Amino acid sequence: MLKRGPWGCNHPPNPPCLHLWYWRNGITKLRSVKHYYVLKQRREDTRARKNLLTDILNHMYLYLFQDEMFFQNWLAKQAAKEGSNKGLNMAIPPLNKRTAPRLQIDGLPGYDKLNEAEKELCSEARLVPDAYLEFSKLLISECAKNGFLRLAQARTLIKIDVNKTRKLYDFLVSNGQINKEPP
Asked: Fewest C-beta atoms under 10 Å: which of 16, 74, 133, 146?
């Protein structure tokens, strides 16, 4: 006597029975069967990767304080196994963040109106002195109107790079020309 199979039939899975299983699971076209198995494999791989972190934490807890060398060896084996499965046997080089060179502001319009600290800021933030004077005047006048000025307000007033706005805002706050918080 044959057992009742997972497909609801009274016989072992074979091609005539498989189509019923596909149909009951929503696979109506033959070309969708391959897609189903690809997605199934992807789900299983994702599930295995989620469990990897739990395994690492368990091994850390159990062995790190008892035998540090064992844990380092285990971690190296896991990294090698993951790399060989993905075909990533080479090390990934670190990203080097390149900084922009300082702006030479000597002789630019408005240079003679700046003090040494302002010249340093303009050169470092790559702001033209005239633009710096205009932006700082705008921020100071807005602060005088409201009594304070937040960074978000400064960013809406000045339509330049947010990092430059941040440097300008911090500079004006540190010099006491604008207030950060309401009095």
From this structure: 16
